Amino acid sequence: MMQRKIAIWFGLFSLMGLVLACNFSATPTATPIPTPIPTRAVMEGGVTAVPPTVVLLPTNTAVSAATPATAVPTPEQAATKAQPTTRAQPTASLSEVVQPTPAMVGTAVHLFGPGQQDKFTLAAGAFKTYTIQGVKFQPLFVFAETTGEANLILKAAAGTDTAVSNPAAAAPLAEADFSPAGRPEVLVFSPDADGFYTLIVGNQGSGAGETAVFLFDANTDTPLATHYRGESLAAGQTKSFTAQSNDGRPVVAFAQPLDQSDLVLKFIEAGSIANEANYSGPGSAEAAFVLPLRATNYTIEISTADGGAASFTLIVVPLE
Fold first, then answer.
1. From CA 51, how far away is CA 43, in angstroms rounded?
2. How far is CA 305 from CA 25, 32, 265, 266, 319, in A?
């Protein structure tokens, strides 16, 4: 009997153990949730996002240092995307900021160039200015004529701003003021450097005058002028050229040495010297003009002051 009771109690204890074991193992039998493994997220288009520790800025305003150079937008692109309503289109903005080149200045400021002429009325005490382009050591030749009581003065001044705003006070690099009222003036200007200069035409007379200004150089062809280029003189030689006036209109001549010779320029009419230019030193150009009263033939003679050899260009202008 005692053995039967022991077996019953052993069975009860075993059953209670099984129940307790089932109660303690209920949670583990559920599906476990694994700890997340960090991964690099992939955005649309296959672009890999930066790690969470890096602040991602919009790609149209900033780029990570690791971003390939080909993906970097230009500053213009970034600014255009960031401020689409305030930034002008590229073409318009460029046209606003581009500065004129020397080739553009002729249009921008009405560059007065060789072969050109201008005619106007110049009041007493008045000035007219022109922007001219100088080439180092290349002479520019200016001839101006007027009428009445106008008394011309010609100046070449450095720069453009001051000379244009106050031409009367401009310090001349070259000046011509030799003739009385109603007579022409001729000016030779040889720049010491490339750049833009101001040609000033003034009237110092007591009255207005109908005025004309002409500009020439040795390299520019013009219908008014005949260029004799590549001429030469042997030692002691004189060369002669012929010119005919158009009725009573002036005849102008410019002689430009191509070396350091000291040229002499003469107008000969009927065997007599009508005018002579021997004012400049070696290597410098000479200029002279005559004022015939009718159609006249002239001989223009070129020689050297010291009788030496020379190489030169002669420009003859019978005005119409």
1. 13
2. 130, 117, 10, 12, 28
β-bridge mates for residue 185, sequence order: 144
DSSP state of 137: T
Q: Are 202 and 168 in contact, with CB atoms under 8 Å apart?
A: yes
Closest-CA residue to 314 (of 242, 212, 235, 215): 242
Q: How far is CA 166 from the centre of its chain?
A: 24
Read off the tokens for 9: 């109690």
Cα–Cα distance, 161 to 23 (Å, whole number): 104
SS3 call for 179: coil
Give the integer Cα–Cα distance in Å for 303 and 301: 7
Instruction: Return the percent helix, strand and coil in the chain, to nearest 5.
Output: 20, 35, 45
Instruction: Measure the CA–CA gap between 159 and 133, rounded to whole angstroms.
Output: 10
Instruction: List the structure tokens of 197.
Output: 């200069």
pLDDT digits (tens, 9 = 90+) for 238-274: 999 999 999 999 999 999 999 999 999 999 999 999 9
Q: For residues 127 and 109, what is the distance between their CA atoms, to the nearest angstrom?
A: 17
**pTM of the entire predicted model:** 0.66
